[in-house]
Structure formats: C-alpha cells, structure tokens
Specification:
Helix 1 packs parallel to helix 3. Strands 2-1-3-4 form a 4-stranded mixed beta sheet. It has 11 helices and 4 strands. By secondary structure, the chain is an alpha+beta fold. 61% of the residues lie in helices and 7% in strands.
C-alpha cells in the first residue's frame, strides 16, 4: 500500500509542491484522476475525507488522516516526516515561504482565472513579480545564501523551504522562459538555488515525470492560454 493518496488535477501547479515534498522524503503515493476529484467535490462535506473546496487533498493512508489546502498539507508532512527546522523561528519562516509560494501562484493566475492576462496587465504586473522574487533573494541573503552554496534558511541540507522554492520557480520558469529571464536578473542567488535543488535526483525525476505526464502544461485552462499569449510561448 502506498504511503499517501493525492487528489490533484492533471497539471503540476499547486499540487506539485505536495508531490515534491513527498518525493524529497522518499515517500510513495497514488493519484486519483480528474473525474474522481470532480465526483468528490460534487459530494456533500459529510462524504469527503476532509471538508474541502478544491484540491490538493492528501490522505495519509497509515494514519487514516486527510488534509486539504497546500500550505496545511506541507505543514503536516513537514511535522510528521521530521522535515521542519529545529527552532520555532525557522519553522515559522518555512511556513511563510510556503504561503508566499501559494500567493505567487495565485498572482500568476490572476486569482485562479478571475481575469485573463492582457499585455497591459502583464506589463503592470512585472514590478510586483520582481518584488516577489526580491523577497526570496533577501531572505536567502540574510541566511548566508550565495550563488554557489547555501540554502534559503541556512543549514547544511535542503529543507522544506528549499524544496518549495525550487518547485515554485523551476516549474514556472521551465514553462515560461520570459519569467526565467526575470528571475535570473532580479534574484540570481534564488535562481542558482533553484537549479541546485531542482537537480537533486528525487526532484529531477519528479520534474521529468511531470513533463511526461502533463507536457508543457502549467495551470491549465484559459488562464494559462492567456499567459502564454502575452509571454509569446
């Protein structure tokens, strides 16, 4: 029996953070298809493993426990798999990074497609995207991150914050070269950290599988189509 069951759509996007932490921890999981997710969402809260509005949803099969919302899932995995830093301050900073990543992907999809991207909207958004990137850069700088060494919150080994960082920026920049160019210019240490962590074997295998399973897809739907149009991909 696999360690976990994951409910998430057939795209990387928000679910890729959960997949990345599971892969980094060497855990096994099965995924339910889009039809199964839709059926679950159409049911009543009483029929759900945990009351939720949308995926990702994770079921810990051994603990018989279910949790939804990406940051809550990452916190649960971090705590139960002993992946979180030792001090309360660094644990809080780790969760700040997770929530920041969640906010960035909300921004990049205009709150999940509430609006569609136009060239004017993208032009106006770029300074905000650069500011997001600079938050990562400054966080790393304060904890000794350098272009060729170090991790986002210090330490000797990559932690949850590094896995989430690498997943956020590598998934996005691999699919949108124009965003990759902005990251390299705005936050070069973050870009270098992303490359180092993304090439760790478990995460590299996960990225290759995402390419095999989902192709170039990022978030899917009309919002991705509008993003590709303004970025010329």
């Amino acid at each position: 029996m696999p360690d976990y069951e994951l409910y998430y759509w057939s795209v990387p996007f928000r679910g890729q953070f959960v997949r990345a932490v599971l892969a980094h921890a060497g855990k096994t999981w099965t995924e339910h298809g889009d039809d199964a997710i839709a059926r679950l969402m159409e049911g009543t809260p009483a029929q759900m493993p945990v009351p939720f509005m949308g995926p990702p949803l994770l079921v810990d099969t051994k603990a018989d426990f279910a949790i939804a919302e990406m940051p809550a899932i990452i916190l649960y995995l971090g705590e139960t798999l002993d992946l979180m830093p030792a001090t309360p301050a660094l644990r809080a900073l780790t969760m700040k990074i997770v929530n920041d990543a969640n906010d960035v992907i909300d921004d990049i999809t205009l709150d999940g497609g509430r609006l569609m991207w136009t060239r004017e909207r993208w032009r106006d958004f770029v300074p905000r995207l650069e500011k997001w990137m600079s938050l990562w850069e400054e966080t790393g700088r304060r904890h000794g991150l350098q272009a060729e060494s170090g991790f986002l919150l210090g330490g000797e080994l990559p932690g949850v914050a590094d896995v989430v960082t690498a997943t956020l920026w590598s998934t996005m920049t691999d699919r949108f070269e124009a965003i990759g160019a902005i990251l390299e210019q705005t936050a070069p240490m973050t870009a270098a950290l992303t490359r180092r962590v993304a090439t760790l074997p478990p995460l590299a295998r996960l990225a290759a599988k995402a390419r095999e399973d989902y192709g170039d897809a990022y978030c899917g739907g009309q919002i991705e189509a509008s993003l590709r149009k303004v970025l010329g991909t």
